[in-house]
Amino acid sequence: MYSNSLTELDRAHLIHPVASYRSHEKHGVRVLASAKGATVTDASGKQLIDGFAGLWCVNAGYGHESIVEAAARQMRELPYATAYFGLGSEPAIRLAGELADRAPGDLNHVYFTLGGSDAIDTTIRFIRYYWNARGRPERDQFISVEQGYHGSSTVGAGLTALPAFHAGFGLPFDWQHKIPSHYAYRNPVGDDPQAIIDASLAALKSKVETIGPERVAAFYAEPIQGSGGVLVPPKGWVKAMREFCREHDILFVADEVITGFGRTGPLFACSEEGIVPDLLTTAKGLTSGYVPMGAVLMSDHVYETIAEGAGAAAVGHGYTYSAHPVSAAVGLEVLKLYESGLLDNGVRAGARLMEGLEGLRDHPLVGDVRGRGMLAAVELVVDKVNKTPLPASAEPARRIFDRAWENGLIIRAFGNGVLGYAPPLCCTETEIDAIVERTRMTLDETLEDPDVRRALRAGEYR
Ligand code: PLP
């Protein structure tokens, strides 16, 4: 499809993230060439709606000249400024101020990273430092949630609870613990919201007791679990977990790398539950993917404890590219765009998306539809009564992605037959309707897949 040289060059030299290398060598790369709004064009000229905003990050959509201008202006004036040695740059300082202004509660202190994984890594380092500063070094145990994703750094990947990130990597570490997910569609306690909240609270309480209440440093949760399959907790779940942590002097970290910047509606999903975490991580929508950047937002008491604990000593955590001025300039411009209409459009488009996807429930393969705002999932099953997933022989991740691609739609197809959606907030009604329509075409074609048909017959089509 593409010039052989590029395909061969890729095969020979480019290692792709989270890929089966052997499968990639066999199937080759699809080269993306350009993009505008919510539409991506590949190297052969094929146009597709990007229903996943890159990797749930291009929240503003592609091709905003004002973002390009902001980056170019900053590159011309000052392409790099270290934040070491007491130095700084105007855009980074301003962006920190803007984020602190808008973040929930007293999350007034901002540590800029390069993305989400190092933001998580940064929280782990700061949390250890915090407990040491409080004279409680034994508080060194961390808890997160099954199906959670907290990045791919050596330690963060141990908080992540997806098997591929552990197998063969010697993870998780013995100080990293998990509680079951709230996953309403497949929760052993059923889908009653209060029952799910109670079960999660009981699981956290039990985990804390097993570890020893005086040993637990922090609990990590995504307001909506993204990479685990877009798992939306019942309303009140995040608040209940936050309150439990407060009562037990456990730091609560909200990982908003996906949910931040309009993905679920507001700038921060935590504000939908009216909670203030001790630390909040973000990335992706912060710069809308135009350049890399992440951030850790820290509450007053965490910052003060660390500052007091360190006294005159340097807190030894930093990156060459911390608070990068070009990324910060992009962040400032992106924030302006969010607040001059994009967030509002995202709310409208998100409601239409959810309504459209709900309309797919009548399809024989659709077991569940869930989401909030511009973050959604459709879970496929071959047996609606027993919720039997698509068989592995049907290669859901690859074949469904390929079918959607042929239909002019990029979605995320998870290996267990869950389809993930995170379109840019700029989507028009027509584009949202096309996402839904192309999904239905993709589902109809999946119904014809011989491996799916076999599994459907085995389940007698319930
Ligand atoms: N945390 C969450 C919730 C994420 O979804 C991701 C990435 O998808 C990360 C952390 C890691 O971010 P990055 O890929 O920018 O390192």
Structural notes for this entry:
The chain has 462 residues and is α/β, with parallel strands linked by helices. The protein folds into 2 domains: 31-63 and 339-458, Aspartate Aminotransferase, domain 1; 81-323, Type I PLP-dependent aspartate aminotransferase-like (Major domain) (Aspartate Aminotransferase, domain 2, 3-Layer(aba) Sandwich), CATH 3.40.640. Helix content is 40%, strand content 16%. The chain contains 14 helices and 16 strands. The strands form 3 sheets. Strands 4-10-9-8-7-5-6 form a 7-stranded mixed sheet, sandwiched between helices. The longest helix is centred in the C-terminal third of the chain and has 34 residues, at 325-358. It is globular and about 65 Å long. It binds pyridoxal-5'-phosphate.
Topology (SSEs and partners):
Layout: H1 4-13, H2 21-27, E1 32-36, E2 39-42, E3 47-50, H3 53-56, H4 65-77, H5 90-102, E4 109-113, H6 116-133, E5 141-145, H7 156-159, E6 176-179, H8 193-211, E7 216-221, H9 237-247, E8 251-255, E9 279-282, E10 294-298, H10 300-310, H11 325-358, E11 366-372, E12 375-383, E13 388-389, H12 396-406, E14 409-410, E15 412-413, E16 418-421, H13 429-447, H14 450-458
Parallel strand pairs: 3-14, 5-6, 5-7, 7-8, 8-9
Antiparallel strand pairs: 1-2, 2-3, 4-10, 9-10, 11-12, 12-13, 12-16, 15-16
Helix pairs in contact: 4-11, 5-11, 6-10, 8-9, 11-13, 12-13
The structure holds pyridoxal-5'-phosphate.
Pyridoxal-5'-phosphate binds next to helix 6.
Pfam families: Aminotran_3
Protein name: Aspartate aminotransferase family protein
InterPro entries: Aminotrans_3, Aminotrans_3_PPA_site, PyrdxlP-dep_Trfase, PyrdxlP-dep_Trfase_major, PyrdxlP-dep_Trfase_small
